[in-house]
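Translate structure to sequence.
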């Protein structure tokens, strides 16, 4: 397995992209490629298999989406590219990103996952979708029904492979891979590389190039990290002050529990903030509607539990607010990694209550002192 490492970023103009794709990237507001994009795009455009270790928030969707949009033939109405994702939320986000990247190429996409009506999925497939993004179970369902064929697939992406392993999808993934041509190009992305994922890569990939992006380096360099010491009972008032002072374009507010999410959302609505909540007890339909509004920029504030928000791939998040401090430094890094995407700077704000000193010390160590303290105007 060949490994590569690059220290120099080039802009998107140096990646030799076609005019339609370059135009779409510019219209999406991307200034320069992230580390994984600068490394991945040339590798995939050159036809190599690739193994990428990267967290959510590194820009990996565009890292594989841009080459897919470049390589797929819009004149051939067959499934040429297949992207597997562990959850319907992530599948929807990937599909939306690819549709934006392909807006000037005339490429059709289909998003297939369980818990949604088959009608739209069947129509998109019948109309000749060239890129299919979906969850393993629903893709197998379409294969068994004969409503999808994979014999023409030239490009296959496995996203968040470790999560698919955790959710028990690996047997389904293996079955799907066996239905695709052995001549295909394959890229696998995973936040971690457990043994089963490495075995899968060896079995189904051809001499893959290996890339690793460390989230700590990225977040420390590109996120303005601030913490405020605040008494637990003062957090709601402190949050209101922060939102009025910072005026975030788009912010995710993280709470530790579903009860806290609901309480904070009610508090902000009572003060006329435009805000929605997302957590695991809410219906799939509600979560999808809220996330669609948030990604389109129609909703400026989202209150979420860490579990509900894991795996969300959202660009242009200006602020992450840790209403409750994460209990582990890794969770903190994942959270603040939702800002500073695609070359943009971001702001991460953390409330530290009386009993949070140990968690704060661990986070400070993890980010090498990049976290600075400020005083809430609430306390004069």
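Result:
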């Amino acid at each position: 397995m060949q490994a590569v490492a690059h220290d120099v970023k080039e802009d998107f103009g140096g990646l030799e992209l076609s005019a339609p794709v370059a135009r779409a990237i510019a219209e999406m507001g991307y200034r320069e490629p992230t580390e994984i994009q600068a490394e991945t795009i040339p590798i995939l455009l050159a036809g190599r298999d690739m193994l990428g270790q990267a967290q959510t928030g590194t820009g990996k969707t565009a890292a594989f989406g841009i080459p897919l949009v470049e390589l797929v033939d819009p004149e051939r109405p067959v499934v040429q590219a297949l992207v597997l994702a562990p959850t319907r939320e992530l599948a929807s986000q990937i599909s939306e990103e690819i549709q934006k990247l392909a807006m000037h190429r005339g490429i059709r996409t289909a998003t297939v996952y369980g818990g949604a009506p088959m009608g739209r999925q069947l129509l998109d497939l019948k109309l000749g979708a060239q890129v299919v993004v979906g969850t393993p179970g629903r893709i197998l369902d379409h294969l068994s029904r004969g409503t999808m064929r994979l014999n023409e697939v030239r490009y296959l992406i496995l996203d968040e492979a470790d999560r698919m392993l955790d959710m028990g999808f690996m047997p389904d993934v293996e079955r799907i891979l066996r239905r695709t041509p052995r001549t295909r190009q394959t890229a696998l992305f995973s936040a971690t590389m457990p043994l089963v994922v490495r075995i899968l890569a060896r079995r189904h990939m051809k001499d893959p190039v290996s890339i690793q992006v460390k989230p700590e380096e990225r977040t420390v360099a590109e996120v303005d990290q601030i913490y405020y010491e605040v008494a637990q009972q003062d957090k709601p008032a402190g949050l209101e002050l922060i939102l009025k002072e910072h005026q975030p374009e788009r912010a995710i507010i993280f709470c530790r529990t579903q009860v806290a999410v609901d309480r904070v959302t009610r508090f902000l609505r009572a003060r006329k903030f435009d805000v929605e909540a997302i957590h695991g007890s809410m219906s799939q339909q509600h979560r999808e509607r809220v996330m669609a509004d948030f990604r389109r920029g129609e909703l400026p504030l989202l209150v979420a539990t860490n579990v509900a928000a894991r795996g969300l791939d959202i660009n242009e998040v200006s602020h992450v607010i840790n209403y409750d401090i994460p209990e582990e430094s890794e969770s903190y890094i994942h959270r603040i990694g939702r800002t500073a995407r695609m070359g943009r700077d971001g702001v991460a704000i953390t409330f530290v209550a009386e009993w949070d000193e140990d968690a704060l010390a661990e986070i400070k160590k993890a980010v090498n002192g990049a976290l600075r303290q400020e005083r809430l105007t609430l306390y004069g």
